[in-house]
């Protein structure tokens, strides 16, 4: 009896205690020793983002992730869209520098154009992140693809399909993108390095298609007429390579020509084209993963607030190799998913 | 003899010389397959050029053509991806193109803004409007479907690539329109001398409206060929220099920017020269920069030869040249 009463008292006390705790939780967040500082460090901060253009899968994906985290943690990511124009991008970045955000995220179209802007921002005390394309000048953080690695992997994929041991003739073509872009400069170097180590590979054509699928189609159709026994083609970006694929399909050479492409791994741009046989292999730099890396870099910079340039680091993106055989429903992503719970 | 060489013939001559040179010098250039793909690769340029020719002959120009093409077709693809019936979507895109043509026409014929400025502004406006309200992403992909519509840009008919047939049809229709229809002849009259045409009683403003509507519709058709051949539409084309390539094909073929001269044949000649050049240089595996140098040298050569053989004089010169 007595025991029972005691038990009742204990339960009542515990319930009251819990209620009290819950009540206080509404007023004062539980601090595990670090979380309070974490939230305080992020709240109310300002981040500027100058993509090379909004409106395409990569930048829309990153931005979806950035905005989700900013909303959750109470800071602000402002976006200024220069729409593929380097000058407008420089202007937007300079505008941000004048407003002194805590972090500036840059996505340069060209390896040289933002060199001075990166330095200027860092002198002004702003931490700089470069995403997926890097100026020659380092900021505090680079998040993105190692384009040399990308070039090597793509070239190796073609070597595997057409080189020694494949029983094929080793004739390959390289349909480049836009020439000043790091993807072309660095990946082009990588491709040359790999091919020079494989003398059985004969690079019969290297042509630039300006990231334009129609140009890629025209160039590829001419190359295929000239080399109907072509074994493989290196693409540079899914949005352009779909034109290359169209030319291969039109020539009826889908089974003969191995096309390796790359890109952000968007469902419509990548997996749909792997599924229907347009691309034989694909290296994805996985935009949802990059969005998470970008957010991590932001969280680190905002909490540690380093002197700009004092502690630079890089988060190179692990590349995802996708083919028809290893493809799963989660190999690619859609913008709706990323907007709903990305980052 | 020499002064019978007008620009069209000079360009034709250069084309023939290049053609013979490439045929002798390059293995595989002369194969039937390569010749077809040569024409196929420039057929979109040719379709756009044919449309532009209507404007230039009427002493106008349409710099918004590529924007119209890109946005109307990208919007159509967005609608098809969202489940709209293909033909409904095409109808709406056609309506959109016609409205753009009408706006261009009103600005030029009634508000009397010079065509080059009106369409320059409209090009930016169309792209901006389209990217803000109609098309979310830069590249819109085309779903694969059963309808013959999807074959316009990719299949073959009697062994001839469909884009070549599309170019031939558009060229034929525009040729008939320009040479044999009343409004086509009015177009020449207006291009030759607007005020005389007006005094003669030609409905100058409605004919100018018609020009821009036709150009916009032809732009839409070119876009359909692109979208069905590369299974996508890249809206970034609107920001490219493609519209200059189109003007180049027109002017190169010998349709003077002063208006009233030339026809579809000139566009075909200009298009073929570009086609032969691009094809030969790709086979030669010339670098991108070297290709641009050769292209511009040949173009300059054509214009210089024309100017030397047919010097401008008081009687043939017109004011209003761009």
From TrEMBL, chain A:
One of its GO terms (cellular component) is cell envelope. Residues 47-303 form the Periplasmic binding protein domain. Belongs to the bacterial solute-binding protein 2 family. One of its GO terms (molecular function) is carbohydrate binding. InterPro entries: Peripla_BP_I (IPR028082), SBP_2_dom (IPR025997). This is Monosaccharide ABC transporter substrate-binding protein, CUT2 family. Residues 1-27 form the signal peptide. PANTHER family: D-ALLOSE-BINDING PERIPLASMIC PROTEIN-RELATED. It is found in: Cell envelope. It comes from Salinihabitans flavidus. Its main location: other. Keywords: Signal.
TrEMBL record, chain B:
It is found in: Cell membrane. The keyword Protein biosynthesis does not apply. PANTHER family: ABC TRANSPORTER PERMEASE PROTEIN YPHD-RELATED (PTHR32196:SF21), ABC TRANSPORTER PERMEASE PROTEIN YPHD-RELATED-RELATED (PTHR32196). Its main location: membrane. This is Monosaccharide ABC transporter membrane protein, CUT2 family. It holds the Pfam family BPD_transp_2. The keyword Repeat does not apply.
